[in-house]
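[Automated response] Your request has been received and processed.

Submitted sequence:
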Amino acid sequence: MIGPVLNHGTLMSIIIFTYLVQRLLGMQVKNLEMAAHDIIEIAPEETSEAFPSFFLKNDLQKITGLAPYTNWGIIKERLFCGIVTHSSTKVLQFNSSIIRGGYKYTSRTCYPVNTKHHKHERQGLDERVLNPVLASTEGGNTWFGHWITDDLTLHLAAEKLGTPVVVPRPEYAHEVGYRQLLDVEGRYIKGGKLKNLTILQDFFTEQLQKTEI
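Generated structure:
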């Protein structure tokens, strides 16, 4: 059910408040589903068996940190129990969103798309994109391997649904060649208010990127 539509001034006030709170407390809300006006499940979550991993004595004690968005509980299941959890694939749709400073904002959530974005760069709020579909991820904006496995396939899927939108950032050495070979460009947006934005929520092979908040 779609709730009341916020005017631009109210939406901006809520977004600014959310931004300040998250900066002050150092937290990010990543559960997009709470802000989506429509959710379509393409494939359900499932688990499969895999051979458990073997480690030398005290090897795991050397671990001092985890990658962003990593869920240690799910990793331990995979390493020790031989269970791999495949997250469900969902299509999330949003009435109104704003891309600003490498983040996607709605009235209640802040979702990182590119934290390497130049935050001091002047950004307008007048982007007009027909049927925008987010075709870039935080992982793909950080590591080229994630761009190949996540962003590239995401872009190809986004082309079937609407206009792929990408948050600009420095390109990888081989990325230009891949984009030219496969003819994938997308609409680069530094910032703007997007209506009817679609996000494909799919975590590659496992739920490793899901963080419990």
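Summary generated for your ticket: The two ends are 25 Å apart (CA to CA). The longest strand covers residues 89-100.
If you did not submit this request, please reply to this message.
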